[in-house]
Write a structure and sequence with these properties.
about 240 residues, rod-shaped, GIR2-like
Length: about 240
């Protein structure tokens, strides 16, 4: 008959000696403890870390212990999911044997892989940003590529704008035509224009005197209008 309690005590002593600085007992009933696992440093000193919490069940190691990631640093959500999946796989493969060291070792290797992936992610992110910068530079240099679709859209908008400008111009011309008066209309609507020139001369100190003797009533003129050869210009020459 398997003495589960004895196996658990022996493993607990071994784990404490292997991980003296990262092993912490949380409770005795049931036995629960944590082990902090840190990856090796990456090329630029980056690391990831996970603190694993294990709890013995009554029939451990014939049944798998309970586990969870108690805390973590620099891990993404997908990394956490991958570690939990890995623990499940390792536990199933090692049922019947004490397995805490095996589980922790598997997680340690996984963390090292994640650090390597971080380097790849950083390089890929760098390449992505470089591609985006190159594309942005190409767009700025080339401008917008003309296609049938965007040309037709521009043409339709341009024609609408021109139609609006023509409509406004026509409206302005119609309004200007309604308010602009002819010279005759100005005299008919503003009687001050009848005497405006004389008033201007008087204001300037110039008095205009008209010698009425220079003019004759048109009725006193002896005009031979019935004579087809009549030339008014010859009248002045005859008097001479």
């Amino acid at each position: 008959m398997t003495d589960y309690a004895e196996e658990q005590r022996n493993e607990l002593e071994a784990i404490e000696s292997i991980y003296p600085d990262s092993f912490t007992v949380l409770s005795d009933e049931p036995t629960s403890f944590t082990i902090t696992v840190t990856s090796d440093a990456g090329e630029h000193g980056e690391t990831v870390e996970a603190t694993l919490k294990f709890t013995y069940v009554e029939k451990y190691p014939d049944e798998a212990p309970l586990w969870e990631i108690h805390s973590q640093e620099n891990l993404e959500d997908q990394d956490v999911e991958d570690i939990l999946t890995l623990l499940q796989q390792q536990a199933e493969e090692n049922l019947g044997m004490v397995m805490i060291f095996t589980l922790v070792t598997a997680v340690q290797e996984k963390l090292n892989e994640i650090v390597d992936l971080m380097k790849n992610r950083q390089e890929e992110e760098k390449r992505r940003k470089e591609r985006e910068a190159e594309e942005a530079e190409k767009v700025a240099f080339q401008g917008t590529v003309v296609t049938i679709e965007n040309f037709l859209a521009w043409k339709a908008e341009f024609e609408l704008d021109m139609a609006e400008l023509r409509r406004k111009k026509q409206k302005e011309e119609e309004q200007a035509g309604k308010t602009k008066l002819t010279g005759k209309q100005l005299f008919e609507t503003d009687h001050n224009l009848d005497t405006s020139d004389i008033q201007f001369l008087e204001d300037a100190g110039n008095n205009v005197e008209v010698d009425e003797s220079l003019f004759q009533d048109i009725e006193d003129l002896d005009l031979d209008e019935d004579d087809p050869d009549f030339d008014p210009l010859e009248m002045g020459s005859d008097e001479d």
